[in-house]
Amino acid sequence: MTIRVLIVDDQIMVREGFSVLLNAMPDIEVVGEAVNGREAIAQVAALRPDVVLMDIRMPELNGIDATREIVAADADAKVLVLTTFDLDEYVYQALRAGASGFLLKDASARQLADGVRVVASGEALLAPTVTKRLISEFSKLSEAPRPPALAQVGDLTERETEVLVLIAQGLSNAEIASHLVVAESTIKTHVSRVLVKLGLRDRTQAAVFAYEARLVTPG
Fold this sequence. Notes:
Elements: E1 3-8, H1 12-23, E2 28-34, H2 37-47, E3 51-55, H3 63-73, E4 79-83, H4 91-97, E5 101-104, H5 109-120, H6 131-138, H7 150-153, H8 158-168, H9 173-180, H10 184-198, H11 203-212
Parallel strand pairs: 1-2, 1-3, 3-4, 4-5
Helix pairs in contact: 2-3, 3-4, 8-10, 8-11, 9-10
């Protein structure tokens, strides 16, 4: 199946560049573009893309608020945030808003396409070398951090809590299975139960939850 993508960025060169790169992939099609968050919300409603590539800093409505509105309107919406290292402080807010992950704007064509495929498949784009550091560091800078959800954590079994911590550390299902020496199908079951018990939509929110509940120590 072809993955339908909406590109949201106020810079025309960025939109055109990403559009050329993604349309060159046999399994990806750019179905629309938007220049700000408000237009993105309208385009998502009209086009129903599989993945939204969302810039953060834009006029009229920024990418964080747009992501929040898009996800609120459709819990299955998949938003992949675009950022640069000098905008790292916004990534944590975007993840809390419901984004499924993020990509750096200087990503290669292969990284961009792979990121779109990962998010489209329902997985979160959690790179251990970058996402872990960002969530760890900028959870401390959140303007309105949520208190540790100890009651919800108490609903998890010991193994489910262990899986949640490993998700927050950026491990894939296969890597978690290898680490715990169990079948990957078993891990998929644990992940599904964790998401249901905590009322979370995907692995990204699970990672944010783990940091906010202090199950993972920043470092």
